Amino acid sequence: MESTPPLQQRFGRLSLARRILIGALLWSVLIVAGGVFAISAVYRAQTVNLLDAELDSTLVTLARAIEPIDDSSGRIREIPERLPSDARYETPLSGRYWVIVPVDAGGEYQEDIRPRSVWDGDPPLPRSLADQALEAPGTVIRGNYPDGPAGEPIRIAVQSITISSNTNPILLVAATDRTQSNTGADQLRTILLIAMIALAGGTLLAMATGLRFALRPLDRIQSDISAIREGRLAALSGEYPQEVKPLSEELNKLLEHNRSVVSRARTHVGNLAHALKTPLAVLRNEAKGETQLDDVVRRQSESMRANVDHYLRRAQAAARAEALGVRTQVLEAADGIARVMIKLFERDGKQVELHISCNLYVRTVRQDL
Fold first, then answer.
1. Closest alpha carbon to 32 in 182, 196, 176, 171
2. Which among 148, 276, 297, 303 is least surrounded, fewest beta carbons within 10 Å?
C-alpha cells in the first residue's frame, strides 16, 4: 500500500481558503519578481541605447575632425572647429570623454588627442576593446568599464578607422559616465518593487476578504448541520448560492433518506416483536399443565419473552438514536416523572425537586429517556 508523502498530507489538511491564498501568494511572488526584473532590464537597455546613440554621434564627429599631417610620419592633427562642442568636454573629469589614439604598425599607442575632460590620466580605453576594434575596422565596439578617468563606471564606444594616405589605424574613443543611468535604474527598481509589493499585498488582502465572504455559505451549512444533529433543525433551509445549492439539496435528500431508513427499521422491529411474542404466548398458554415439561416450557418461554422485550427495546432505541434531528429536553421528561412521583408519595409528605437546566438536551426520543 502506497503511503502519502508528508508534504502532501500537510497540504491536504489545509482549508480551501488557505490553499487559494497560498497559490495566490506564490503567483504574486513570481509576478513581482518577474515584473521588477523585466521592467528594470528594459529600462536599463533603453538607457544604454540612448547612451550608445550619443556615443555613436560623437564618433562620427571625431571622424570628421581629424586630418593627416602632410609628411611621411603618418601623424594626424585635429580640426578644432569640427571637434564636439559640448561644454562638458572642456570641464575636467566631467563624465563626458573622447580620445583619438593613433596606432603604429606594431600596435602601440601613439600620442593621443584628448579634451580637457580626460585630464592627464590614461585614456578611457580598455585594451580588450581596442583589440576588438583593430580586428574589425569600421565596426563600433561597445562595452562597459568600471574605472573611468574619475573612477566612475563608464560606457565606451571604440571604432578603428584609417584616413587618406595614413595606413596606420586610428582609434576613435567616446565614453560617458554611467553613474546617473545606473542610479536611475536602481531607483526605478526600488519604486517598482515597493509598488508591486503593495499591489500584491492589497490584492491578497482583497482576495482574503472576498474568500471569507464567498465561503460564508459553507460556514452556515456547517452550523445548520450541527443544529440538525442536535435536533434544533429538521433540514437545511434558506437560500444558498448556486454553487452551494446542489450540496444543500443533496444533504436534505440524505437526511430524508436517513429518516426513511429509521422509520422502516422501527416498523421491522415492531413486526418482529409481534412475530416473536405471538408464538411465545401460544407456548405459554399451552403449557398450563402440572407436568415438569409444562413447567420447563413456561419458564423458558417467559425467559425468552423477557429477552425478546429487552433486546427489542434496545434495538428500537438504537434505531432512534441513529436518526438525525432527534432530541429531547431533559427537564420536560423529568418534570413528567416528578409529577407522578409527587402524586404517589403525597400522602407520605414527600416532595420531588428538580435542578435541571432548561438548555440540557439528549439525542433520543422522550419515551427512551
1. 196
2. 303
At 317 the pLDDT is: 65
Residue 84 lies in a domain: yes
- Domain co-membership, 310 together with 244: yes
Write the pLDDT tens digit of every residue in 276-321: 777 777 777 777 777 887 777 778 888 888 887 777 777 666 655 5
Do 66 and 203 lie in one domain? The reply is yes
d(CA 133, CA 123): 15
Q: Are residues 271 and 319 in the same domain?
A: yes
Q: Would you say residue 238 lies in a domain?
A: yes
pLDDT tens column, 341-356: 888 888 888 888 889 8
Secondary structure, 3-state, 122-171: CCCCCHHHHHHHHHCCCCEEEEEECCCCCCCCEEEEEEEEEECCEEEEEE
Label residue 80 by pLDDT band (50, 70, 90): confident
Neighbours of 167 (CB within 10 A): 9
Distance CA(189)–CA(191), nearest Å, equals 6
Between 3 and 128, the higher pLDDT residue: 128
Reported as a single tens digit per residue, the pLDDT across 117-158 is 998 877 888 999 999 999 999 999 999 999 888 889 999 999
In-domain check, residue 228: no
- 192 shares its domain with 240: no
Q: Are residues 126 and 265 in the same domain?
A: no
Give dist(CA 129, CA 269) in Å, integer.
101
Secondary element (H or E) of residue 264: helix 245-286
Residue 82's contacts (CB-CB under 8 Å, 6 or more residues apart) are 61, 64, 65
Q: Into how many domains does the chain fold?
A: 3
Q: Is residue 227 part of a domain?
A: no
Distance CA 227, CA 234 (A): 8
Amino acid at 45: A
27 and 87 co-located in one domain: yes
Q: Looking at the predicted structure, is the pLDDT value of residue 1 above 50?
A: no
**Residue 25 lies in domain:** 11-214
